Amino acid sequence: MRNSLRAKIITVCNKKIAQKGDNVGVSFYAFFANKNDNPELLMEAATWWIETHQLDHFEKAIKIVQMVEAGR
User: Is the pTM of this model over 0.70?
Assistant: First the structure.
């Protein structure tokens, strides 16, 4: 996964955790606007989320941050 996407995921998850607490859930759509303006990046995130790690639609934001920071 490209570094810019990793940084965006960490930023978005940390913001949601700060707003709603450690139990807040996210989907990979949380990292994008409500329009498909970057399909390549969206597919990269979807592949990492669905195909590579077989994550559920919603996962705890804290889990996603830990995975991304660990380089998984």
Answer: yes
Give the type of residue at 17: I
Provide the residue type at 48 as one letter.
W
* E strand map for 2-71: 25-26, 59-60
Burial of 26 (0-12, 13-18, 19+ CB in 10 A): buried
For the chain, the distance separating the N- and C-terminal CA atoms, rounded to the nearest angstrom, is 9
What DSSP character marks residue 25?
E
Give phi and psi for 36, each to the nearest 5. Answer: -90, 75
pLDDT averaged over every residue in the chain = 94
Q: Rounded to whole angstroms, how far apart are CA atoms 12 and 39? A: 19
